[in-house]
Amino acid sequence: MSDVRYITLQEAEQRVRASRDTATQMQMLQDLEEYAEFVEDGSSKILLYEGDTVLPYLAVKDDIVLVQGNLTVTGILEDCLEVNLSLLLVLGNVTAQHLFTFSQICITGDLIVENTIIADSLHDCSLHVEGDVKAHVILEDGHWFNVKGKVTADDIYASHSAKPRGLLEPNLTDEALVDEVKVADHLDLSKAMQYLMNNNKAVFRK
User: How many domains does the chain have?
Assistant: First the structure.
């Protein structure tokens, strides 16, 4: 069970520096520096989950969330909820049922999503993973994927992080998606999120 408390920016930096020296660690330190102004002006705090953490649901909002250990979310993990920017840093592995990401996430271990990853930040933010990424479905429409390991998914829809610019290898097109997740015959991520939250699992035609 994890200990949850607020920490200073300096302590957050120290904890990240004490982790394994990787490219993702360096990205975390860069992100903390870029988000420092929000901590300094009091609009954000840094929430630390110390130790392996299991939650039924996690929404990252104003506060920067740092998990020092593995993070398991048995339901939905989502960021940038009701805010324009958010930051999630995990010093370990992440497992979730669904991941809805619209801002910055850095993970020093693996990312395993049992169902669907939905990702869109209007090309501004990234999903950084030092290890592997595994999911059933990935729906990316305007979000960078920076993954040092392998990306494995049964089905991938990708517009921005698709090859040759990115590393995703899409095998889904708009025509393969069910009508409930489309607007004007194109993928609509907000509709896809609602569709999945209503306990629907397949966003593509079989």
Answer: 1
At residue 61, φ and ψ (nearest 5 deg) are: -115, -125
Cα–Cα dist 161/141, whole Å: 8
Rounded Cα–Cα distance for residues 39 and 108 (Å): 23
Residue 62 covered by a domain: yes
Residue 206's pLDDT is 64
Pairing status of strand 182-183 against strand 186-187: antiparallel
**φ, ψ of residue 121 in degrees (nearest 5):** -130, 25
**Residue 137 domain boundaries:** 3-173
Check if the beta carbon of residue 88 is closer than 8 Å to that of residue 69. Answer: no
The first and second tokens of residue 151, run together, are 């990306």
pLDDT digits (tens, 9 = 90+) for 109-159: 999 999 999 999 999 999 999 999 999 999 999 999 999 999 999 999 998
Residue 125 maps to a domain: yes
Cβ-based burial of 39 (10 A; exposed 0-12, middle 13-18, buried ≥19)? middle
Q: Give a three-class secondary structure readout of 32-64.
A: HHHHHHHHHCCCCCEEEEECCEEECCEECCCCE
Which pTM does this prediction carry? 0.94
Question: What's the rounded Cα separation, in Å, for the pair 53 and 1?
Answer: 6
Q: What is the pLDDT of residue 1?
A: 61
The tens digit of pLDDT for each residue in 149-180 reads: 999 999 999 988 888 878 899 999 999 999 99
